[in-house]
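Hey team,

Filing this mostly as a record. A colleague (T.K.) asked me to run one chain through the structure pipeline before their review meeting, and I want the input and output archived in the tracker in case anyone asks later how it was produced. No errors, nothing strange. Just documentation.

Input sequence:
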Amino acid sequence: MASIRRVSFHSVTKYVPLFLLAVYLGFFGVLFVSTYREMVLWWGKYNLTYCYFIPFVILYVIWDRRKRLAAIPSARNWFGLAPLCLGILLYWLGELGGEFYTLYLSSWLILAGACLTYLGWQKFKELRFAFLLMLTMFPLPAFIHNRVSAGLQTISAKLGIVLIHLFGIPAFRDGNIIDLGITKLRVINAGEGLGYLLPLFALGLVLAYFCRSTFWKRVLLVISTIPLAIFLEGARIALGAIMAFFRDVSISEGGYHLLVAGAINLTALSFLLAEMWALGKVGHKVVEGAGPAPAAESSRKDEKRETARIHPPGRSTMYLSGIIVAILVLTIALSNMIDFRDSVTIKKPFSQFPMEIGNWYGTPLKIDADILDVLHLSNYAMIDYRNEDGNIINFYVAYYANQRKGESIHSPATCLRGGGYVFKQSGTVALPIHNGDGKSVLVERALIRRNDDTQLVYYWFPERGRILTNLWELKIYNFWDALTTHRTDGALVRLITPVRENEEVKSADKRLERFSLKIWPVLQNYLPGRKLSSP
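Output structure:
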């Protein structure tokens, strides 16, 4: 009679960690599948194609350090609950506030917290570079992306002018336009200004990983990618101007564009490799743990590996696992079972907005369908108002019945910078309007310029009875009001007037201020306030 093989408790429980890992990854996927799907789409939108390779590099880093990881025993660490709980808080802030980058950071903290909790600090340290590299996959918020891009674009354009002058070509810069006399070149849009910096920064991190040297050398290698990116962009601008001046060829044409892009990328890689070689000649100290993990060859490491074999989880480990699973399950349940955003209908459709405001007479405008698909707004009005003096004020109001991730208000600061406008002045201005609290209303004011076009902009965000001026406030109040009142409805109001030639900016300020006083009571008939009227 065949004997029945007994299955020991140890042989079963040793697979518990693998089971828990599968459970964690399953919950993690449920929470962030839509967020990561949007992230991959944004890689194409923001020209961040290098991000497609980052997950494979991360997997290689983990595989490369597999022997070190195997030699370190796993240890529970209750402190891992701190980043995990912070990640859950950021999840709700991003989910209810409508901000994707907050959700990216949330996923990063939750994953890091779970690894730290279950693997322990020593093992987590072996994975720290993989987690650092993971941050380079996340697209920056649009308003940060465009502001940083605009600054780098300006520096690169100035450098490009210097390089152009070295070739004896007369040129001067006007905003984001380089005038060569015989032709004019437009510097890249602000949204593409990080096209070299972000890939080079990620490349610098990867090369620093393979640079088995002191910490300061690896940091210097990564930091050097910033001036290198600025220089290469300036060189690209100068090369485009030189080709346009001598050969009447645009650098943006298909064949030339690919050739120049390839040459610049090869130059960047060559420079960084040369820098690695030069840094390697400075001193001879090699830092333990820097670069790829060496193969384990000593019997002492074999003993460590033997110690590191998976043992049955103890009670405290099971308690930790239960807490993490409970937190994730509760978060998933609340996010799927409770609708924190009621759609609030506008008082009246903007199609009924008056075309006559005092002595101003309007002409309605339409937004292109492809732009409307991006804005995800519920209702809008765009009207050009003119008066007898020939002055023009472009009025735009967009209403959102509810705001959620990917479908929230876009700041004019982001859109205008993305359109190539340079902000000469930016800040807030007080309007002599009282919003029910006896205080003057603060609105955002900006003087912008593109080529010879100078305009003055006022804008503000009416949010459920509040008047806000920046997106940080908007996200925070969206989060709070979603929790307390189940409302995230809001609007953007923007006024733009051209500053005519020889006109003082003060005159344009007075024009917008007076128009704001006229339009304010009209808007109250359309936008919902703090309290909703009974049906």
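Quick notes for T.K.: The longest strand covers residues 422-434. The two ends are 81 Å apart (CA to CA).
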